[in-house]
Amino acid sequence: MRTRLLATLVPLACALQGALLAVLVLAPAASAYNDGRGFYGATDDKVVTNAGFILVIFFPTFIFVASMILRHLEKRKEARKAAHKALASNGHLRGGW
Predict the structure, then answer these.
(1) pLDDT tens-digit series, residues 48-94
(2) Buried b (16+ CB within 10 A) or exposed e, 21-48
(3) Rounded to 5 degrees, what angle do the CA atoms 65, 68, 69 make?
(4) In sequence order, what are the residues at sequence separation of 6 or more whose Cβ sits closer than 8 angstroms to the Cβ of residue 43?
(5) Domain boundaries in the chain?
(6) Alpha-carbon separation of residue 72 from 11, 65, 77 (angstroms)
(7) pTM, rounded to two decimals
């Protein structure tokens, strides 16, 4: 059992070390590209404010939509449980001897 675990962890550890090394080697070149401004470009107060507004709008909307989806799924589950309970309680409808 221990050899199987080691046989799994050794390649994983080597892959993680290689990925970390690649990130550390490529990080200076990534920050030097585009004068360190990133993908979007220069950001000023308006850009940061708009990003904040987008976050303020997104998270409550996401929570509302997720809650409505969960409510719908819960109602379906309760209806399915009620139908199963009603079917199980009617012994004369199931047939048999």
Answers:
(1) 999 999 999 999 999 999 999 999 999 999 999 999 888 877 766 66
(2) eeeeeeeeeeeeeeeeeeeeeeeeeeee
(3) 85
(4) 37
(5) 1-34, 44-87
(6) 45, 11, 9
(7) 0.54
DSSP notation for the chain: -HHHHHHHHHHHHHHHHHHHHHHHHHHHHHHHGGGG-TTT----HHHHHHHHHHHHHHHHHHHHHHHHHHHHHHHHHHHHHHHHHHHHH-HHHH---
State the residue for tokens 């050794």.
10
Rounded to an integer, what distance in angstroms lies between the CA atom of residue 58 and that of residue 8? 41
Instruction: Please tell me the distance from the alpha carbon of residue 37 to that of residue 30, in angstroms, as a whole number.
Output: 10
Query: Which amino acid, one-letter code, is at 45?
Result: D
In Å, what is the CA distance from 21 to each residue of 38, 50, 65, 72, 83? Answer: 22, 36, 41, 47, 58
